[in-house]
Each structure stands twice: as structure tokens, then as C-alpha cells.
């Protein structure tokens, strides 16, 4: 098992390498550059050239890439071109914890709500309760994140004043867990909604299939009550495909988080991603690409490991 | 001999597109203590539904026991609550199935699947259950039972899995073992071993067996009594020797004619013309009449009743009931 994990991690290295080449090329191919985006339009062309010279923006693309790669391997992502002098790693490390907290909270929320509802749906298929759950899930999948977020802000924050409208904590207040949680609730709900809905559907169909298997009939013939049949004999089998979906969902939280973070003014890396893309802040974009690629790889690896733990038929 | 299980006029219907389909249509059946009864019939004759009805494991909806009684030790299982039924399943009545390859849970160890039954019904401690599980596995013929406890089912062959199923089924020392085509999915040499094992255990533990099969070879090997089903009804019931000496119902005769024999010269195996009609197209009179070589007008107009013949066997056929009536 450990050798498998090591092998898989090593295999991820060329993959990440490929991802950096592609994203570097795509970012460079985008029209405009940091100078045209951020510089004063009245700036003299000679000054602009001096600036470009200083940051190596005049070099051929492959030279730029090799320089960047060389630094990246050493753990140096360079400085932000826009917020001059701030190391990219510092920018990211300031924001990554916020995104991780939001991701973890919404993942747990999605799983805790979706899996029981999915199981219940599968136990009583085609009943009123199942139909209600199904319709609600479709609504959840179909609702755009930003719209749902704005709606919650409008009613729960602005009209009723139950929740803050955004941010991670009350400004200028002392640190308190309750304050943090209070700020976390709405964005976590919004981020969880779509995945919760999808996860309910996946759990339902997976469990529905499992509950028709012969070994479920065997479990019933042993005299176990329905709850035990479903939870002990059904769930472990039904969760196996869900694990894969979880592994794939994990990195998608970062992408989905960008919009939610924007709506709730949540200072996470999603928001940083959007801002730096607009400003052609190459070092930040590249660093974030690497970070999210790493998340994708970790998500997949985690899914494979959990797979092996849950399904004894899988051998390495 | 006292009756352990008695089915009286059991009717299990399925609803499909608002139509009532009588999958089991008035079955009477008695199993005595220590007796092995074979339930025989083609696919679709209702034999598996009969067995699932006894276990009260008919998927509902669409299936439902609509009439009749299932007397087990004098108690009617039809009226038991689900909770009370759970105490009987796996404990007093247990069941093994046709597909050993898929009947065991792939993510639980073999040991766990036996242990859980013992802890649940016999209230044994985990340690005691493990000992008992090893004992059960040894009894069904595993030599390295201790190691097997921690194996997962996918490492075992079909025959071995069916042995594990038998070990699970017998672990609480049931009074009745229902075996639904237990050897159909196995190859012939393994079939014989499994049947021998079941026979041996039934004698050792005085367990009655209801074996469901369409294989008359299996019947002759294990059964004391044979019940032949056709279209949801019992058409003939007889002791195994009587049935093989002289089958009475034309359907049974047809089944016998379709077994290959080692003796004598046979050109071709006989087959019964036609197929089992689906329940929604059952004929009005005798359900076998359209396929029966001896059918006459009355067979097509009137349904025959199951009548006793020669004092110890029953048959549902005018050829024989008339004879009895006139004698």
C-alpha cells in the first residue's frame, strides 16, 4: 500500500510538469500583459520597456518558463507584479487557510446532509418523500451559486440581520470562534448546495443498485432489521462509487469557491485567482495553477486510497 | 410424524400495471420434522416465490401474500409482525440461494458474516461467536477454517462460497432450511458434494429441508417427498419412490421423459411441447391442458382439484380424480 502511494505520487510529477507548461503557454497567449493592464497610459514607452526588462517580461516565452520553473522547484514563486514586492507565496499562504476552511466546512455539510437523504430515498424509492428529495436536489443543482448567495444575503443578512453579509470575521474585533463560525455559515451553505444536491442523487442511485443485490437478500434472510441491512450491508458497498465522486469534487470546490468567495467577500484563493487573471499577474496565476493542480492530484490519490480501504477486492 | 411447516392455500400475488398476477395460487404443502421435501417445477412455476413467501421476503410492493396460512410449529407466519419475523429468519428458518457468487457480501469477511448471525440471534459474545464460526466452517468441510475467518468472499470458489452460505444458514441450528436451487450454479462434482453435505447436516441436526429445484437428479438424491408445481399450483405430491416408479400427472411424466438415462437406448430426449404460460394468460380449465397430450374437453372447461390418490399421494388431474371417484 505504501509503495503504491509513493508510486502514485511520483507519477504525479510529470503530470504537474505538463500542467505548468500548458498553463504557462495559455496565460502568455492571452492578450495584454501586466504593463498594459496596470501602468499609467501616459507612461513613456521607454519607461515601460525598462519595467519589462526588469521583470524579464521581454524574454522569449521558453526562457521565461525555464526561469520560472527553476525558481518554482526551489519553492520560490517569485513576487507579484501588481502588488509589487509581495512574494506570491505570502499572498497565497495568507488566503489558503480561508479557502480550506470554507472547503472543509462545505464538504462536511454536503456529505452529512446528502448521504442520509440519498440513503432514505433509495430505501423508499418512488414514494412522496423520495420525490420531494429528488425535486429539491434538482433545484439545488440548477440554482446558480452567486444568485443563491445573493438571495441569502438579501433575506438573512440584510432584511433579518441574522448573519453578516461577508468577510471572515468582524473587522477590528478580537478573535472569537463564534464570530468566525457566524461568518462561515452562509458561504458554506451556498458552496455546499450544488454538491449536496448532486451527492444526494449519486448516493440514491448507488444505494438503489446495491439494495437489489443478492447479498442484501441474504442479509434479510439472516433476520436483520431493515436499518441494519441497509447500514451494515448496503452502505459500505453503496459508498464505494461515492468515494470516487468525492475525490473529483474536492478540487472542484476551489473553482466553485471563486464565485462564492467573491459574493461573500471571502478573502480566499478563489478571489485571488479571479483578480490576478484580470490583471495578468503571471506569477500569481501560475502559482495558483500549481496549487490547484496539486489539489486535483491529492483528491484523486485520496479517492484511490479510500477505495482500497473500503473495497477488499481491490489489490495493488 | 408431526408437521413442522404447513402451507394452507397460500396465495402470493404481484401487482403489475394494476393487474393482479397470481404467482402462487393456492399452494398446500406440509413438511414434517426431519423431512426433506423437494419443490419441483419449471422456471415461472412459482416455486421460488413460495419459498420467499415462507421467509416473508417477498418484495412488497409489488408482491403480497393475499390469502392462506403459513403454519410454522403451529404459529401463522403470515400474521407475525416484521419484528417477530426477524427473530425467526436466520434462527428457526434459514435460507441458501442459487447464486453463491453474489450471495455473500463482498466487503465483509467470511468470518464476520457468520459471527454477526450468532451474535444477533444467539446473543453470544464476539469471542464465543468466532469459536463457533470456526467450528461451523470446519463442519462444512474447510480444513483451514481459522485462516478462512479473515478471508473475503472473492477469494473463494463458487462451491466454497456455497459451503460458507450453508455454514451461515446452519449456524443457529435452524429447524427448517430452505435451499433455493442451491446447486444450479455449481459444476456437477461440486453439486454432489453440496447435496451430500446438506443431507449429512439435516440428519445430524434433525433439520427439515425444503429444496427447490428443477433438476430431478437432485430430487432423487436428497428428497423424501416431492411436490411438483406448475403455474403457481401444486399438480402432484408423492413420496420420492412412488413418484419415480409411477408419475401420475402428465406434466410430471413429461418432466421424467426429459431426463437422460444411462440405461437402454434412447434416440432423443422427450420434451414437453410449448412453454409455461405467463400468469396473465392462464387457461380457464386445467392450466396444463394446452400442453397436455391427454387433454379432453373437460380439461379445457373446468379446473381440476388436487385429490388424494391411493391413500398417500395427491394429483391434480381429471385422468386420476375421475378414476378415484368412480371406484
TrEMBL record, chain A:
Name of a matching Pfam family: BPD_transp_1
UniProt entry keywords in alphabetical sequence: Cell membrane, Membrane, Transmembrane, Transmembrane helix, Transport
InterPro entries membership: BPD_transp_1_N, MetI-like, MetI-like_sf
Database matches in CDD domains: TM_PBP2
Topology versus the membrane: Multi-pass membrane protein
tRNA processing among keywords: no
Keyword Membrane listed: yes
Compartment(s) where it occurs, according to its Swiss-Prot or TrEMBL record: Cell membrane
PROSITE patterns from the UniProt entry: ABC_TM1
First-listed, main subcellular location of the protein, grouped into a coarse class: membrane
Residues annotated as transmembrane: 100-120, 132-156, 181-199, 238-259, 284-310
Every ABC transmembrane type-1 domain range: 96-303
Family as reported in the entry's similarity comment: Belongs to the binding-protein-dependent transport system permease family.
Protein name stated in the entry: Peptide/nickel transport system permease protein
Organism annotation: Cytobacillus purgationiresistens
Taxon lineage: Bacteria, Bacillati, Bacillota, Bacilli, Bacillales
UniProtKB/TrEMBL annotation, chain B:
SMART domains for the chain: AAA (SM00382)
Single GO MF descriptor: ATP binding
Principal localisation: membrane
Matching Pfam families: ABC_tran, oligo_HPY
Keywords linked to the UniProt accession: ATP-binding, Cell membrane, Membrane, Nucleotide-binding, Transport
Occurrences of domain ABC transporter (ranges): 5-256
InterPro entries, alphabetized: AAA+_ATPase, ABC_Ni/Peptide_Import, ABC_transporter-like_ATP-bd, ABC_transporter-like_CS, Oligopep_ABC_C, P-loop_NTPase
Signal sequence coordinates: none
Membrane topology: Peripheral membrane protein
UniProt-recorded name of the protein: Peptide/nickel transport system ATP-binding protein
Upper lineage: Bacteria, Bacillati, Bacillota, Bacilli, Bacillales
Amino acid at each position: 500500500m505504501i509503495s503504491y502511494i509513493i508510486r502514485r505520487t511520483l507519477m504525479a510529477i510529470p503530470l504537474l510538469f505538463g500542467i505548468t507548461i500548458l498553463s504557462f503557454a495559455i496565460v502568455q497567449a492571452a492578450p495584454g500583459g501586466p504593463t498594459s493592464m496596470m501602468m499609467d497610459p501616459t507612461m513613456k514607452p521607454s519607461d515601460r520597456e525598462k519595467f519589462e526588462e526588469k521583470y524579464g517580461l521581454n524574454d522569449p516565452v521558453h526562457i521565461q518558463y525555464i526561469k520560472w520553473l527553476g525558481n518554482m522547484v526551489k519553492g520560490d514563486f517569485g513576487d507579484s507584479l501588481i502588488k509589487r514586492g509581495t512574494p506570491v507565496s505570502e499572498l497565497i499562504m495568507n488566503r489558503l487557510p480561508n479557502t480550506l476552511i470554507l472547503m472543509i466546512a462545505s464538504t462536511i455539510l454536503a456529505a452529512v446532509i446528502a448521504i442520509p437523504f440519498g440513503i432514505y430515498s433509495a430505501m423508499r424509492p418512488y414514494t412522496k418523500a423520495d420525490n420531494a428529495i429528488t425535486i429539491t436536489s434538482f433545484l439545488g443543482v440548477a440554482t446558480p451559486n452567486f444568485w443563491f448567495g445573493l438571495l441569502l444575503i438579501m433575506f438573512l443578512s440584510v432584511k433579518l440581520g441574522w448573519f453578516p453579509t461577508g468577510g471572515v470575521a468582524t473587522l477590528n474585533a478580537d478573535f472569537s470562534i463564534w464570530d468566525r463560525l457566524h461568518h462561515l455559515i452562509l458561504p458554506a451553505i451556498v458552496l455546499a448546495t450544488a454538491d449536496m444536491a448532486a451527492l444526494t442523487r449519486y448516493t440514491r442511485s448507488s444505494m438503489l443498485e446495491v439494495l437489489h443485490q443478492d447479498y442484501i437478500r441474504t442479509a434479510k434472510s439472516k433476520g436483520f432489521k431493515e436499518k441494519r441491512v441497509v447500514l451494515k450491508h448496503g452502505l459500505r458497498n453503496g459508498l464505494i462509487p461515492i468515494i470516487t465522486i468525492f475525490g473529483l469534487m474536492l478540487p472542484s470546490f476551489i473553482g466553485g469557491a471563486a464565485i462564492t468567495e467573491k459574493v461573500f467577500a471571502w478573502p480566499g484563493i478563489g478571489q485571488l485567482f479571479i483578480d490576478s487573471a484580470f490583471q495578468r499577474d503571471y506569477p500569481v496565476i501560475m502559482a495558483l495553477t500549481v496549487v490547484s493542480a496539486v489539489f486535483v492530484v491529492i483528491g484523486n490519490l485520496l479517492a484511490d486510497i479510500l477505495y482500497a480501504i473500503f473495497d477488499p477486492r481491490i489489490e495493488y | 410424524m408431526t408437521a413442522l411447516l404447513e402451507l394452507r392455500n397460500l396465495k402470493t400475488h404481484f401487482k403489475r400495471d394494476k393487474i393482479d398476477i397470481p404467482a402462487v395460487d393456492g399452494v398446500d404443502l406440509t413438511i414434517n420434522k426431519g423431512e426433506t421435501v423437494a419443490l419441483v417445477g419449471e422456471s415461472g412455476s412459482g416455486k421460488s416465490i413460495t419459498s420467499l413467501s415462507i421467509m416473508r421476503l417477498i418484495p412488497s410492493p409489488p408482491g403480497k401474500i393475499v390469502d392462506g396460512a403459513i403454519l410454522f410449529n403451529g404459529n401463522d407466519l403470515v400474521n407475525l409482525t416484521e419484528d417477530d419475523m426477524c427473530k425467526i429468519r436466520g434462527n428457526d428458518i434459514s435460507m441458501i440461494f442459487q447464486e453463491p457468487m453474489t450471495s455473500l457480501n463482498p466487503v465483509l469477511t467470511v468470518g464476520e458474516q457468520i459471527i454477526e448471525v450468532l451474535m444477533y440471534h444467539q446473543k453470544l459474545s464476539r469471542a464465543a461467536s468466532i469459536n463457533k464460526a470456526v467450528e461451523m466452517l470446519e463442519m462444512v468441510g474447510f480444513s483451514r477454517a481459522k485462516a478462512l475467518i479473515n478471508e473475503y468472499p472473492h477469494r473463494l470458489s463458487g462451491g466454497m462460497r456455497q459451503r460458507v452460505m450453508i455454514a451461515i444458514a446452519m449456524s443457529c441450528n435452524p429447524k427448517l432450511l430452505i435451499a433455493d436451487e442451491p446447486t444450479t450454479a455449481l459444476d456437477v462434482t461440486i453439486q454432489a458434494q453440496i447435496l451430500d453435505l446438506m443431507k449429512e447436516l439435516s440428519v445430524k441436526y434433525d433439520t427439515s429441508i425444503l429444496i427447490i429445484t428443477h433438476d430431478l437428479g437432485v430430487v432423487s438424491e436428497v428428497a423424501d417427498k416431492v411436490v411438483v408445481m406448475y403455474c403457481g399450483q401444486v399438480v402432484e405430491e408423492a413420496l420420492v419412490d412412488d413418484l419415480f416408479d409411477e408419475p401420475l400427472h402428465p406434466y410430471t411424466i413429461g418432466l421424467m421423459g426429459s431426463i437422460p438415462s444411462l440405461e437402454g437406448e434412447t434416440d432423443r430426449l422427450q420434451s414437453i411441447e410449448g412453454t409455461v404460460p405467463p400468469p396473465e394468460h392462464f387457461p380457464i380449465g386445467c392450466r396444463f391442458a394446452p400442453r397436455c397430450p391427454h387433454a379432453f374437453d373437460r380439461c379445457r372447461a373446468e379446473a381440476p382439484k388436487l385429490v388424494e390418490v391411493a391413500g398417500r399421494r395427491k394429483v391434480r388431474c381429471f385422468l386420476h380424480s375421475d378414476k378415484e371417484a368412480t371406484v
